[in-house]
Specification:
With about 575 residues, the chain is α/β, with parallel strands linked by helices. It has helices at about 15-35, 40-55, 55-80, 105-125, 135-150, 160-170, 170-190, 195-200, 260-265, 285-305, 315-330, 360-375, 380-390, 390-405, 415-420, 425-440, 475-480, 530-535, 540-550, and strands at about 210-215, 220-225, 235-240, 270-275, 310-315, 335-345, 375, 425, 450, 450-455, 465-470, 490-495, 515-520, 535-540, 575. Strands 14-13-12-11-6-5-3-4-2-1-15 form an eleven-stranded mixed beta sheet, with helices on both faces. It has a two-stranded antiparallel sheet with strand order 7-8. Helix 17 (about 475-480) links the parallel strand 11 and strand 12 (about 490-495). The longest helix has 23 residues, at about 55-80.
């Protein structure tokens, strides 16, 4: 029988089977490509190649640029080792050819040839008329990966520094490098941390600020830290870290722990430690993270301390979630938040930086299939994407220094934290990438909480927002865009360093500086360029400026609250750092 128009058709029994087959096929592709979509790469290169083929003027221009570079190189070679006048200087962040050995023939010619070729390929993959911005970025990025892979610094035959190391050690550096490589390979196969990582003990060497777990649900453990001052401010501080890594990025060693420092400033501090999700948590979504995370924590803090107002701090994804939570609270008339502090946290995603290279429909389809099969996205996939953004520093320099030269630097606390990855559940990560990164729903007024739209324009509380100069995860200009989404008072600080090191910037840390400018409530927003011209530069740590800002917006100190409240269902469960932080 044929269904008549307007009649609901019965579900096709093949629909579910077809989806299963498709998901399995895409998951298999993802496992072979490390989660990168070959379709995205193919589309990008096709777009670039076809438009370049149709651009005779641009091809002529590239030919002329190539000819000029050959002439510059020939002139450099003709003058011998004229290192004071090279044909081309490396980019400021490129330190592969810093050693004086690269200034001697024939290695000077090899290095100069590579740098000129690298510059030419950048010109070839950018500025081609008709190529979409995303495809141009992907093509340029892919060519940079290829060039970084075949850089002369990566090979013994073309690297004078490595050759000298081999001679000095009688070739034992290669033996030691092979040993390090096989050890890492074995650890990776077993899913175990390296022995060096194991030397750092959670609760003793790192994540050691004293406190108690006073609340636990299926997603968080809430840590209440013991006061170290006789009196504390009446407004507690809730710390909402990112769940992409463990919370103790903000509680590393005793000398650089933001949490320990904040406790020492006379605040009652609470921090969320996220559960490391597995397959059983596949259906946890963004709203589950909001309700079981900051909202549950606010309830506990209010019950324990009796505070009417609470300062809230969010870092990275935790800051994005906190901004969503604060906007929903403002919409619903919930005024428990006194201030909002966002550290390297994006609320507007139209310019997410190089991380946006991995965000398009084809890429998300592949990630969705991979997460659908497992129920989560593994930290190795996320870590691989971040390493590719800085492959020269994070991949090939490690291959050279560790696996060829046999030099492995001792681990520090930040490196240990970076190796302690977490997973992300299927529903939450898919929703986060699609609604925020791909569609920018939060900034454009389409994001819903409890089936009702929220708007960051509802935020009227004072805000302290921090961006970092060399952030590859949350570029500071993207973080700065919160000025365009609310007219609230915003003190924006731009500190030197990257996504992690710029935040872990304790007082006394050498070579630290930051810019700071406050936009008053109701004043118009400045563009990032205008902000840079007006913001005053300060030496030292942004922590101290934030501490002063927080102090002005806090009440007079009084007796500290108790650790937990057994009579209200918040009895201390165990000592900090708790059990969730130990989950692998």
């Amino acid at each position: 029988m044929i269904d008549s128009p307007g009649t609901a058709s019965a579900p096709d029994p093949l629909d579910g089977l077809a989806e299963t087959f498709d998901r399995a096929a895409f998951a298999a592709i993802a496992s072979m490509t490390g989660g990168l979509s070959p379709v995205t790469i193919a589309q990008a290169f096709s777009d670039w190649a076809l438009h370049l083929a149709a651009s005779p003027g641009h091809r002529l221009e590239l030919f002329a640029k190539g000819a000029r570079k050959y002439i510059r190189l020939a002139d450099y070679l003709a003058h011998g080792s004229a290192s004071d006048h090279p044909a081309i200087e490396p980019l400021p962040q490129d330190h592969r050819f810093d050693d004086p050995a690269w200034k001697t023939p024939p290695y000077s010619a090899i290095a100069q040839s590579f740098l000129l070729m690298q510059q030419w390929w950048h010109a070839a993959t950018t500025g081609v008329s008709g190529v979409s911005d995303h495809h141009e970025a992907v093509t340029s990025f892919a060519m940079r990966q290829i060039l970084d892979m075949f850089a002369p610094s990566n090979f013994a035959a073309t690297n004078p520094v490595l050759q000298q190391r081999i001679v000095e050690t009688g070739g034992m550096c290669l033996v030691e490098g092979a040993h390090l490589f096989l050890t890492d390979l074995e650890d990776m196969a077993r899913g175990a941390a390296s022995s060096s990582v194991a030397d750092f003990k959670l609760g003793k060497d790192i994540a050691a600020t004293k406190g108690k777990i006073i609340y636990r649900n299926r997603l968080i453990e809430l840590i209440q830290y013991e006061p170290t001052t006789a009196n504390v401010r009446p407004e507690p501080v809730l710390v909402v870290p990112a769940w992409i890594m463990k919370y103790y990025i903000l509680d590393l060693s005793s000398h650089n722990s933001l949490i320990s420092w904040l406790v020492g400033q006379g605040y009652a501090v609470f921090a969320i430690s996220w559960h490391n999700p597995g397959s059983a948590d596949r259906d946890l979504d963004m709203d589950d993270y909001r309700l079981l995370g900051p909202m549950a924590a606010l309830e506990a803090i209010g019950a324990i301390t009796g505070a009417q107002k609470i300062h809230a701090l969010g870092y990275c994804l935790g800051g994005t979630l906190l901004a969503i939570t604060a906007a929903a609270m403002a919409r619903d008339g919930d005024d428990r938040l006194a201030t909002l502090t966002l550290l390297a946290a994006q609320t507007e995603f139209s310019e997410p930086g190089e991380l946006g290279l991995f965000i398009d429909e084809a890429q998300l389809n592949l990630l969705d299939s991979m997460m659908w099969e497992r129920g989560y996205l593994d930290s190795s996939q996320m870590g691989g994407a971040f390493q590719m953004l800085r492959s020269n520093d994070l991949v090939w320099s490690r291959v050279l220094n560790e696996y060829l030269m046999g030099n492995r630097p001792p681990l520090n606390d930040l490196m240990v934290w970076n190796a302690d990855g977490t997973r992300m559940p299927y529903a939450m990560h898919s929703e986060y990438l699609r609604k925020l990164f791909l569609k920018d729903d939060l900034a454009e007024g389409r994001f819903k909480v409890d089936n009702r739209t929220i708007s960051l324009s509802a935020l009227r509380l004072p805000m302290f927002v921090v961006g970092t100069e060399t952030d590859h995860v949350a570029p500071w200009r993207s973080v700065h865009k919160i000025h365009m989404l609310t007219s609230a008072e915003i003190s924006f600080a731009l500190t030197n360093g990257g996504h992690n090191a710029g935040i872990v910037s304790e007082p006394g840390h050498n070579h630290r500086h930051y810019r700071l400018l406050t936009r008053r409530d109701g004043d118009p927003a400045l563009s990032p360029e205008e902000w840079l011209l007006q913001a005053e530069d300060h030496g030292g740590s942004w922590w101290e400026a934030w501490g002063e800002w927080l102090g002005v917006r806090s009440g007079e100190a009084g007796a500290p609250p108790p650790l937990g409240a057994s009579d209200k269902g918040y009895a201390p469960i165990l000592d900090a750092p708790g059990s969730y932080v130990l989950e692998k």
